[in-house]
Write a structure and sequence with these properties.
- Three copies of one chain form a homotrimer.
- Chain A has 152 residues and is of the alpha+beta class.
- The first copy, chain A, has one domain: 60s Ribosomal Protein L30, Chain: A (2-Layer Sandwich).
- Helices cover 30% and strands 29% of the residues of chain A.
- A five-stranded mixed beta sheet of chain A has the order 1-2-7-5-6. In chain A, strands 3-4 form a two-stranded antiparallel ribbon.
- In chain A, a hairpin with a 2-residue loop joins strand 1 and strand 2.
- The longest helix of chain A has 22 residues.
- Chain A is globular.
- At the A-C interface, strand 1 and strand 2 of A face strand 5, helix 3 and strand 6 of C.
Chain lengths: 152, 152, 152
């Protein structure tokens, strides 16, 4: 099934991709491997701020992770010249969760993104991943996720 | 020499591999490159909790790093269809150490894993690496390590 | 233009490369992809200590990031057998910023390195990147950066 059919079934509209604010790019390819820059969580286009275990709970964090996942898919589409069906495999996801010292559910937060990739890409969406708690993130956002994918 | 001879000489028995608890996998391959998910430290099968510079000292952290290294080798064996001799090179190791704000020996903790890879894989075990202190980890574990390897 | 002409125009002299202090290496290659170990910030050859949002401000952090970038270029030269013109593309940069809980400008700190790569490598220097705040770093340094590059 086309990735676009799946996105439609899931009622997901891809956003416009963000432009980087400095001397870097949102995706870089070497061979068939694409590296996506860390994407910070956004809500209605603005930084989704918060700290897990502080002013944010796991459920909201998982929603933020899903939102970052959608932004990553939009960037991945751009990396594929506009055609997500060129994605062969989601290879690796790294999830950096803005965490209070007592918060130990980074994996549950990150499931919000992992589940999305499985829903959209099926078996090819199953990825290796790491999730850990960071001291702070750019603009005070609650979450940042980067991704490695294999493309045609 | 076979990797299995080395493991035997080092008296290392590989554990059963962990099953991921969500929509991800413990290893994903693209071309000849395998990405392993972040593996959290375990002691007797349970999360090895603690914070370096808090309730855990560097020596115990290095033991935990060695234990994670053994778990990573077990996953790498699975990624190679059961034959570790297909590993061409340990390429990159990333070590996330649960750290109090005052703890500055993440590199010494991580040596527990780096030394293991050198012992087991010899020259091919020498890897690039990063080690840094994180605010917290899934389930309160003291350490999480991910790995990139080249395989046949 | 040769990378060496650019370095000269920018008045950048590459330092001697650091030797790793344990069972790892500063760079490891698989196919055409080189992974560089995390390089900690140094000032006059000694660890550049500090915490952003604590005893260090963004401007100094960006200088430290530029300094790490120069050290990374020196290691990249070694990885290319002494010839930086073999670098095809700077692919990915990961920047771990030693951060107080209130510091949210990891991206601005990291620009010190990103700008350098754009200056030295031009279009081929534009990389994907992630920047995040860590709880602490080896030897109390303010910054650690690792890099992935494509080489001939």
């Amino acid at each position: 099934m086309s990735i676009y059919t799946r996105l439609q079934e899931l009622n997901i509209a891809l956003p416009a991709t963000a432009a980087p604010a400095a001397s870097y790019v949102m995706h870089a390819q070497t061979g068939n491997t694409v590296f996506l820059s860390g994407h910070i969580a956004k809500k209605e286009g603005k930084p989704w701020t918060g700290r897990l275990g502080g002013d944010m709970e796991t459920e909201e964090g998982a929603l933020a992770a899903r939102a970052v996942g959608i932004d990553l898919i939009a960037t991945l589409e751009a990396a594929c010249g506009g055609d997500l069906n060129r994605v062969r495999r989601i290879v690796k996801l790294t999830s950096m969760v803005n965490s209070a010292a007592s918060f130990t559910e980074q994996h549950l937060v990150t499931n919000g993104a992992s589940d999305l990739f499985a829903q959209v890409f099926g078996t090819q969406g199953k990825h290796a991943r790491s999730a850990f708690g960071v001291a702070q993130l750019p603009l005070g956002t609650c979450l940042e996720i980067e991704l490695v994918a294999e493309v045609d």
